[in-house]
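Support request from a user on the community tier.

User writes: "When I paste my structure tokens into the form, the page sometimes reloads and wipes my input. The last time it worked, I copied everything first. Here is what I submitted, just in case something in the input itself triggers the reload:"
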């Protein structure tokens, strides 16, 4: 989440994003979203509320919205409704047998989950569908990154989102903090690669939000 603005989004916006997520998700990966509402922190279960350390209302609302969405996905998959605690590393702790990821921007919270029998890892990130500031773009883009074929106006922001999604996918496995220079993205191959050699598949959308899903099939 890169901003603390409070844009208002209707349920129609929510449905539009949900429709895009439904089309982009690979088979076996479940994804859903929620427009973050004031007071969504009340959706945190008591154990979750204690593990989410931010004191900022908008951040807590975002974490509550993301967990509400994530628990809905667990229920749809026929799994027990479990609290999704935040580990000291920041990573969410998913129930045994499940891989998953959560993200929020200034307006929407999203979550993705899949069976660990089918996917080794999953990472998701979301950002507004707007160009990235040039100074940030210069830090994110490395010579090894390939953005050919991506709408130029949004390429840097998409690259940023992809690297964060890859990081969220691989961190629970490797427990290593990565910088933008440690992840190479190739959109022509729909692939991300970490400095340690881990390869992660990518799918993305550019509108109505930039969303990247990073995943390692078993
Ligand atoms: C993990 C990280 C990328 C999240 O980015 P963000 O813009 O702050 O927040 P997002 O809304 O995109 O995602 C937040 C969610 O990511 C998840 N998350 C946080 N740390 C994580 C980690 N180490 N591994 C996997 N998921 C993590 C949490 O579910 C969190 O939601 P919560 O606070 O409600 O529990 C960021 O906090 C971080 O640790 N960055 C350092 C590494 C990095 O960015 N390197 C450059 C890219 S390789």
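"...and here is what came back when it finally went through:"
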């Amino acid at each position: 989440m890169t901003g603390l603005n409070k844009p208002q989004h209707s349920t129609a916006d929510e449905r539009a994003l949900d429709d895009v997520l439904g089309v982009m998700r690979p088979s076996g990966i479940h994804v859903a979203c929620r427009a973050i509402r004031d007071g969504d922190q009340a959706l945190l279960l008591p154990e979750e509320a204690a593990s989410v350390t931010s004191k900022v209302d908008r951040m807590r609302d975002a974490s509550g919205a993301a967990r509400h969405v994530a628990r809905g996905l667990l229920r749809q998959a026929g799994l027990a409704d479990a609290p999704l605690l935040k580990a000291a590393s920041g990573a969410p702790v998913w129930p045994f047998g499940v891989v998953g990821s959560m993200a929020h921007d200034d307006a929407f919270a999203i979550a993705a989950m899949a069976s660990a029998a089918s996917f080794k890892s999953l990472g998701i990130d979301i950002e507004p569908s707007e160009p990235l500031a040039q100074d940030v773009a210069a830090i994110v883009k490395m010579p090894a990154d390939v953005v050919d074929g991506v709408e130029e106006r949004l390429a840097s922001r998409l690259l940023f989102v992809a690297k964060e999604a890859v990081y969220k996918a691989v961190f629970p496995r490797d427990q290593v903090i990565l910088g933008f220079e440690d992840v190479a993205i190739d959109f022509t191959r729909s692939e991300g690669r970490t400095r340690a050699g881990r390869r992660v598949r990518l799918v993305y959308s550019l509108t109505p939000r930039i969303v990247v899903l990073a995943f390692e099939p078993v």
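Agent notes: The reload is a front-end session timeout and is unrelated to the input. Residues 1-2, 63, 66, 86, 89-92, 102-104, 125, 163-164, 167-168, 171-172, 177-180, 183 surround coenzyme A (CB under 6 Å). The longest strand covers residues 119-128. Escalated to web team.
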